[in-house]
Amino acid sequence: MAHENVVASLADPAAPAAVAPADNGFAALESFLTDQAPAAAAQAPPIPLPPIPLPFRATSGRYRSPLTGFQLELRVDVDGRQPLMKLSGDYFTVSGGTVTYFGSWTVDAVTTSTVNGSMVVVGTARTTWPTTFTVARVVVPRRTVLQPAAAATITWSTLTGAPGATYVCQHESGALRTVELEQDVEDGVTRFDSYNTGSLPSGGPARQLNVAAAYGEAGIQILDTGGTNVVRTSPTHIWNDASLHDAMLTHFSRYAERPQFKVWLLHAREHELTSTENVIGIMFDQKGLQRQGCASFYETIQSAAAADQRTQLYVNVHELGHCFNLFHSFHKSFMNPPLPDRPGALSWMNYPKRFNPGGSAPSGEAAFWGAFDFGFDGLELAHIRHGFRNNVIMGGSPFGTGAALEAPIQPAEAVSDTSGLQLSIRTSPDRPTLGTPIVLEIALTVQRGQLVHRASQLHPSFGQVQVTVSRPSGDTVVHRPAVLHCAASELHDAAAGEVLPVSAYIGYDAGVGQLFEDPGAYRIRASYTAPDGSVVVSNTALLRVWSPAGDDSAVVADLMLRDETGMALTLLGSDSPYLRRGMDALQEVVEEHADHRDAVYAQLAIGMNAARPFTKLHADGSVEERPPDLSRADRFLNQAIDASRGTGGLDDLTVYQVMAYLAASHAAAGDADRARRLRQDATELARSKNAPSTIQRMLRGNSDS
């Protein structure tokens, strides 16, 4: 009994205190334990616990075979996060010290089984090269998380079972693809860090996301190169397309004119279209340099508020998505080959304001964010994980070009059209000769009052209007603007009878370069995707490009058809050394061929470039800001304007826009009198030419201000 009291006092301080002997109870405790020892020894041995099984490694990931003959990069996607049950791979030929891309393949649906402790994956592949060995069988031994990853063995066979080649591919990464990201930030801009998705209502679990984590959830590893440079511009600096284009070529230290999984992202303050069109992102797509750079603009989303932080995450992931060759969710029909538009997609590539799942389901920005789980949709995941290499890799296929072999076709007439909208197009100038810059005049007529896009956003660079050109060579080209603007501006509440016009230079294409490079007949058609999803198809514009008449015209044609000239015209001029050959060609046209009808386009590009500032980023990271040269701008633009007051020269809309821009430049420089005279001149010219009422109202408003 005394022993029990001692033990109780040691286990529970609240128990009654025992009568302790002089040794404070330790001797009694020792005696008690000694007395109990034989009894303990007589007890049954403890029952062993079953071992806890260790979880297996994910089979999904990237594997690579040795550098001998053909090397295979194998991608397995059958478990882990959002498995798509697909296989894909890229083959490379190895010759001496060189490795060259050969082709790609994808298995769109697989069957899986476990055989003798190995994961077995089987499916039939689509390939970029002709072959009868299309059945892929991949075997990967299962390994626990404490064991190194096993190699994957792929064996090819025909549909009838004839065996083909076998490759043993070592595990390389849990990511299906890896991309190097170089990020630079403009002085005064706080680069986006991360956002907690639980800060505001959403459709997914709360988690901390940055750009790399967002792509990591999609199976893509983003490696930040760590070479962030601070672009030290003035506090009031505003970017334009020409400066950004030069910055991409100069500042992207990993730039090369070849396909590579490397991309540049600039965190900038403001684009010149941010204030008017709410442009918050831009992606460049130029022949030979496809999808290698993009920029995000923070001017309207720079606060620490949760909504702005969420938008910063969205914009950065969205713009990089374009570099992976992802179209907007509501513009999938613009791809080559086309896919159905998905305006109801809960995806990084949708516009929150354009979210429309159809039926009576909630639509718009609040509905999008409330249901968005911060991810890509299934078809987009399939593209960035398993798309054929050239259709995904930066510097590969032009924006929007997919893997199918079918040729694009002109948009078809709607069987019925109750949209209340009419789209019309015509080309300018009349009777162009080879080398003449082709401008497409686009007009949307609103037959029934409704919400539509603003006139300026009907320009193809905003993606609402797609232009398709059938050429005399027999091919059909879906026009790809070299610059894609992502804007989040409000829709326009148009009245019945309102006409919304815009003009666009379409002579240079991001995929094929010079679009009108041969004499002959061209058929041009456009389609507009309205906010409600209606696809409105235009008339067909017939364009005949004539051969140059005489040596003078032949020389001008040669100068105007340079790829660098086409890009310079797209950007309305540039100081970039990368486009110097094009700008020199335009300068030669105005100096040596001033009487040629196409000299007016050279005057336009040279004059507009002078009318605006240009930011030059040097290789050492230093910045040089060239202010507008209004004396030079007046010289060239006044020549272009005067040549266009009659029936020749530039199209009317371009003339009005040039006069308005030049007036704004003079006003910014403090010359209010010159600005007022230009605006009044533009207003009178538009009235005399019976310009659409929307244009006249805009010019009158500018004149009054």
TrEMBL record:
It comes from the Bacteria. This is Uncharacterized protein.
